[in-house]
Amino acid sequence: MPDAFEVNPWEVKGIVDYDRLVREFGTEKIEDFLYKKLFSYGKAPASLRRKFWYSHRDLNMTLQDYDAGKGFYLYTGRAPSGPMHIGHIMPFTLAKWFQDTFDVNLYIEIPDDEKFLAKQGLTLEQIDEWVKNDILDIIAVGFNPDKTFIFQDREFIKQMYTPACRIAKKINFNLAKAVFGFGGSTNVGHMFYPALQIVPCLFEKKRCLIPAAIDQDNYWRIARDVAEGLGYHKPAQIHSKFIVPLTGMAGKMSSSEPHHAILLSDDANAVKEKVIKHAFSGGRTTLAEHRKLGGNPDVDVPYQWLATFLEEDDAKVKKIYADYKSGKLLTGELKQMLIDKLNEFLDQHQKARAKAHKLVDRFKYTGKLAKKMWEFEDIE
Amino acid sequence: MPDAFEVNPWEVKGIVDYDRLVREFGTEKIEDFLYKKLFSYGKAPASLRRKFWYSHRDLNMTLQDYDAGKGFYLYTGRAPSGPMHIGHIMPFTLAKWFQDTFDVNLYIEIPDDEKFLAKQGLTLEQIDEWVKNDILDIIAVGFNPDKTFIFQDREFIKQMYTPACRIAKKINFNLAKAVFGFGGSTNVGHMFYPALQIVPCLFEKKRCLIPAAIDQDNYWRIARDVAEGLGYHKPAQIHSKFIVPLTGMAGKMSSSEPHHAILLSDDANAVKEKVIKHAFSGGRTTLAEHRKLGGNPDVDVPYQWLATFLEEDDAKVKKIYADYKSGKLLTGELKQMLIDKLNEFLDQHQKARAKAHKLVDRFKYTGKLAKKMWEFEDIE
What we know:
Shape of chain A: globular
Oligomer: homodimer
Number of strands of chain A: 9
CATH topology of the largest domain in chain A: Rossmann fold
């Protein structure tokens, strides 16, 4: 069923053919030489080594800029849509690696306008509640507070609106329709929003590298055209796949179906219950059958999650794969491995998050980069 | 030729059939009882007495609100498009009368984004130059600095963006297309702009009265639908006709054709030269013929301008009409009357304008109303 999936900034449905997305979006797969080059700067997180981050645009040029002393900067974001789950944190984890490794600025946009404009029935009041929580989760990742600026569109709009006008002037309805599928019932706020998501691509004259899931690519295709016309670098991207939901390999994890997702706020018991009850297993129906025929790690969500981002040890991942396939490792045991890794990750995250409120002001207003950005008026 | 004219926020072409606009836009002509009621509050300016202000929505309800002690407020604006001419000042003149007569707040929007978004080739830098000058011309009208707030969209956007999102969510492309003629080549910034022009209709819980030329009515039609849905009064309007260009009765005066317009910055000689050279006359080709057959004041621009807004004395206007029609008053004499009135008006305006720079901060930031508005965050 080559057509039975859909990927756009508002929806991911079906089993995603990631190679096809690369062809359709006109991005490039990250080739081995480029992975090697990335790894040469420092030990990369599992999600990068396991090719969960699999596609890019101008990532090589970004590294060339770095090597040549020109530097680059990072930009990513988080559209508030409910409690954050472990899938939502992935771009931030990678951004942290890039920031730590290359010592660069990072801009984090919180579009507290987008989902309100895109979704019927959603209120700004609800979004503002989510934003407060999201910012704590993001800070918990451990960014450099003097080189990271977290900003909300509605709060930072004075600084963004003039460049957004310059950008918006270059995006007409036909283009927005072709790229985003906007139509007659799309409201004029939702139509303007892409300009605001593009503004941070022009925050510095250096090349901008954006770690984000590939469903955001529509924005960057337009951003690349617009940026050059305004005298800036085309922003570079590194694209991830999606973390599959607990319940199986189709679509992406979603907070709106909380028992199919592991929330960053889940406690150890919630994790245990969700994984045991809902994690789709590649195991056989009986123990005897499993021992005899082996399981299928390729569709097994616990294996996929461990392999994609939770188990740092490459050798261990290989062993799990082999043992599960051979029937040596049982479904219950594999699920327990996932539960342990998740709870280890969440325990650490939640501890960091508990202290995050003390840092909110630095990331938003008083840190070195934040302070500078509140003086920002327009692109050059 | 009933179809040979066009009126929209960006263009006025042909000889305007104002009654037809009332029918098409669904507004109401100001009836005699309503004029009388208006005049009962205080001596109205010529432009109101001569029915240059001719159409409205809910003007009667606005006055009822005032009579009932509920009050109302005023909102108008000026989109920078070059040096202001005497046509541009008309809504401000009427706004001043309303403010003086009813002692109400007045909000003046300077959309320093709109024309940039709507016109190819126009730069923000050019607009920002015009804005500085426009604000001085507006202040010269003599508003109450503690009850008048002048704001530029790009500077005041932080306060406007959240309500604009609420408004924009209620305006989809189909509606914007139907009302403004937006299409595939309209850019997404231009599409969002109407939301920003509507925001000030929701600045207070009182009824908002907007004095503006009738070409702006598209915005208010949407504003009225949206405002009620958000728990506010439908904004009321009082609509003017257009000041015809010096050169004849078709279209409206435009700064882009400077010798067809009297600029607020024109000196006495420039006025004289423009009127003598370019003012379209209803006179006969020879003096003898004029004396014998009389002129046609109905197409004579000097008469029209005097009658529309420049000559306060009703009896004098009647006499000019009769004398010109009979041939007693000659074209040169009528032109001289216009020149004198224009120069009297401009002299007074320019003197006030020369002192206006001292008041800019009060109207924009430090006056009582301005100060309050910088604290504004959202509609209720």
